[in-house]
Design a protein that fits this description.
It contains no helices and 17 strands. The protein is globular and about 75 Å long. Helix content is about 0%, strand content about 60%. Strand 1 and strand 2 (about 35-55) form a beta hairpin. The strands form 3 sheets. It has a 13-stranded antiparallel beta sheet with strand order 1-2-3-4-5-6-7-8-9-10-13-14-17, with no helix packed on it. A two-stranded antiparallel ribbon has the order 11-12. With about 325 residues, it is mostly beta strands.
Amino acid sequence: APPLSSFPTGPLKRRYTENTSMGVYVSDLMTLSEQWKLSLGLRYADEKQEAEERKTPPLTRNSTSSSTVLPSAGVLFHPKPNWTLYASYATSYVPQAAGVQDAAGNPNPFDPQEGRQYEIGAKTELLDNRLTATLAMFDIEKSNTVAPIACNAGVGGTCSQQVGAERSKGTEFELNYQVSQNLQLIGGIAYTDAYVSETYAAGAAPLVGARLTNSALRSANLWTRYDFSEGPLRNLGIGAGLSYSSEIAGSLPSANDQRVLILPSYTVADLALYYRAADRYDFTLKIGNVFDKLYFEGVNSTTNENGVVPGVPRNITFSVRIPLW
């Protein structure tokens, strides 16, 4: 490979960024009756960011600040002691970075990203608490999202535009089952429909209905562990698991090119060995991606190209846990 010095470079820069976050929140969980509980919360957030170029002219200095009040609420219903039904509502916001600029070079003219989430679900404990299960359905929407675009002639750096809103709707199910004293099963499945729900600018890269990048429509995982309690293998445990992801979109369509990069689905297997010594010291040897599966986790997108991120190849980790007291 050629040395790094052989590649062309631009002027060296020294960018200094300072973030200041302050917040105050209050929350309360109220017991309305033996079966009903109500949770209410309120958070005030103040965000400030300054970005400064200290080396290469023009020595720019940009700042952004914003504040907001974020409410949250939830209700829990216990029809039986081992069953919980719940519903929740939460809001969020994230200011845009001070260093972003629009196509004309104007520093950070963008509104903060805002979000809201609705969720309903159920939790239960069965079989003398050996089986726990959770089912959740959610609806999340983000507005004022920003995406990269080409800068106007004469404008340097990376430019962005406020393109619209994103929405994710789906269902998740998780299960933890202590089959016996020695055998445990942990698993989960998820369905997530994540897409562009609105656009603000004509010709914006994301189109309404396009699937968001790096979001799998379906995913699942299963992990099982068996611990030997008798015989020569006493204190030894064996674990094995699978994780699955359906295909994901690696790019968004544009007004000029409707093609989308699709990264294929994959299934990865892991294996682990556990050993406890002197009823005190825990040793774990884990082999990730046992079959050295070649797969792609997603992309790092830029204005002009997509950087595909490969998954981690076969890897081995060893850890020791020693209690201090």
